[in-house]
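Researcher: Go.
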Amino acid sequence: MRNSMEEIQSGKIELLDILVDIRLTNVTEIKIVQEVVGFINAKYQEHQTILQPATVAAWILNRQEIPNLYATSSRGYNKQRLKFQNQYSVLVREELLPRAVDEILMEKLPQNLHQDLTMAINSSTSQEQSDGVDIFEILANINLANVTEFQVIEEAFNYIYINYPGATGRINLSDVCALILNHKSVSSLYATSAEEYKQLKQTYVSKYQPEVKQIIHQMVAKVHSEGSEHSLSQDSLISVNHHRRKKLTKSWNT
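Model: Structure:
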């Protein structure tokens, strides 16, 4: 983080400038998007125009029983990936993913067509295949954003620079944000459009922001005391996440 106190206090720092230094990846988001795309490709190819991966993924990611698993280092990424695989992959694949697809289709298809499609899918021998999914291309282009993530990045950045001006080199913003976003009291608010983003931002401010601010204070103090991990070294993954954050910030978060 390389901006001056004068810029912070004058309000000249924008979210796009902050995102340049963010090395933050939500393993839960990646794995769920991968599962969703593979599931739709295997069983719902004819209905891809009304069954968007972002909508299905957001439905699952906003569930309380699915936690964020953010990482900022290669070691942390692998640890979170194993945690998702061991604790949540079966729940997502066998319960939440079919429910999400069924509810979304029920909203968009006439009842008789929905029933016919459900019968056809249930009798199909197709298996979900996600191994061939190009996750980098999907993540770079999918219209999916965690409103809480963007708010936490901006709020944590401002708090560090205002309250710890002499320790910004020691306090890694990505590590702080990962600790906050992985906290059990911090909820995901995934949006799939500019309209949803604005609605969920209002929800965040009115319902979650006060408690999140307290968690920001705690986690900044923790990282200030204990230091930070090394930055995530998976440059391809960092690049696509930054590309998407930048794109959606320009079009939605204004």
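Model: The longest helix spans residues 194-226.
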